[in-house]
Amino acid sequence: MNNDLLNHILAQAPEEEPARQNYFTGECRRVVSGISGEKGRHLTCSVNTFGCQMNVKDSEKLLYILKEIGYQETGNEDADLVLFNTCTVRENANQRFYGRLGTLKSAKKRNPDMIIALCGCMMQEPQVVQTIRERYSHVNLIFGTHNIYKLAELLFLYLASHVNQTEILDGTDKIVENLPSERKFSFKSGVNIMYGCNNFCSYCIVPYVRGRERSRAPEDILKEVRDLSRDGVREVMLLGQNVNSYKADITFPELLRQVSEVPGIRRVRFMTSHPKDLSEELIRVIRDHPKICRHIHLPLQSGSSRILKAMNRHYNKQDYLSLAEKIRNEIPGVSITTDIIVGFPGETEEDFQETLDVVEKVRFDSAFTFIYSKRSGTKAAVMEDQVSREVVDDRFRRLLDLVTRISREQTKQYEGLVMEVLAEEVNSKDPSLLSGRLSNNSVVHFKADPELIGQIVNVKLDTAKGFYYYGTLADDVSLS
After folding, report:
1. How far apart are the first and last CA of the chain?
2. Per residue in 362-374, pLDDT tens?
3. How many angstroms separate the CA atoms of 231 and 264, rounded?
């Protein structure tokens, strides 16, 4: 495209969002349509997501934009446009990502017109962007967590000029509303209620790459939920780095209550909670509103008060135990899940025993257990007394054994009961089974017709298998 035409198109672009991106989506569509005509086929795209549910939601928005432009989705990384939405929570994952990025160089040699795009948390790290520019010149688009909505504009600039595009914002207070998404499931959806994090746990890079907390207006959230309900969504998950710290005209518990009262919505979940901010009001709201799922993910990280202080978690062991006890007492049938880090700098065997003690007392229904990963740019990365890998591996094994035993015991208590399951998908290992979830987030596999996907059905929990069940459809099949 010549410069005069390009400058004319850019001059006509609206300033306000999302009208500006809608404009560039149309311009991209014309260019992509022309390329498709020349090739005699539709162009394809592959969107690859790493990390948390926030990234999953972002990828749904990115995929919608690409489909509006004219790309067809494929799972093949030989696609005409390959996008990686990256996570940077663990440094060793970064190294694996570079290896995967390197393999795309061969794919691009086979298809020189391939476009490679990178976004997400890794792109917010200046040293990462510098490395990509210096060693991976086959990457065409780089953008960060604060401007994913600008994919169409950046892609148009590349298509029009064939000049690689990079746009990373250090931070933003902007929240662009009314961005549609291409949902993986027609009947359930994540809903962002806030972005960023202010906690600055000493091991975590997230506040540096996701920015400071920014909460959406409750009316915008409720409008999105109502729109989703009209579109057939029956379960929503409210998303944020720490939903408990949502700050707007109403509190998070009040927002949760109002969302649960939207007609057509059958289940409401949320992720993730920080123990220091989980209020008695939230516990009461969950208790009193049956549509709110009986599941609270409550990251522990460590059972040692000394280590928790070093982690900058703002609670101690007794605070956590008291909170967990209150949740168990107030909400019958609640499932409490958690995250635990093993081998944080300075962790002694005594500290580790404190963690095991909390696991025994709280009796987590399941736990995500992690070996501490030194993350450049965090305070913990430069702490002394890094724990040896041999010691960490032994502690991790002992923790996993305990978590697995307790999870089996917790699951066993519901064996033989009939409970409501949201049928979500055909089981990937056995196509005769459907897989779904209980309100408490436990997975259930059961024989049923795929036509039931998206419905809440009664299932008898025949056999508990630790982290999941095998079940049988009850007589009254559909409850929705």
Report:
1. 53
2. 999 999 999 998 8
3. 10
Amino acid of residue 161: S
Longest Cα separation, the chain: 72
Residue 318: both structure tokens together: 């007794």
For residue 81, what are the β-bridge partners?
45, 115
Q: Which of 86, 107, 105, 106 is nearest to 96 (CA)?
A: 86
pLDDT tens, 269-305? Answer: 999 899 999 999 999 999 999 999 999 999 999 999 9
Mapped onto helix, strand or coil, the DSSP state of residue 459 is strand
Say what the pTM is. Answer: 0.85
Separation of alpha carbons 78 and 372, rounded Å: 35
The total of other beta-carbon atoms located within 10 Å of residue 10's CB is 14
The confidence band for 259, taking pLDDT boundaries of 50, 70 and 90, is: very high
- Burial level of 425, CB count in 10 A (0-12/13-18/19+)? middle
Within a 13 Å sphere around the CA of 75, how many CA atoms are in the beta-carbon half? 0
Q: Which of 83, 98, 102 is nearest to 155 (CA)?
A: 83
Q: Are strands 335-342 and 366-371 parallel, antiparallel or unpaired?
A: parallel
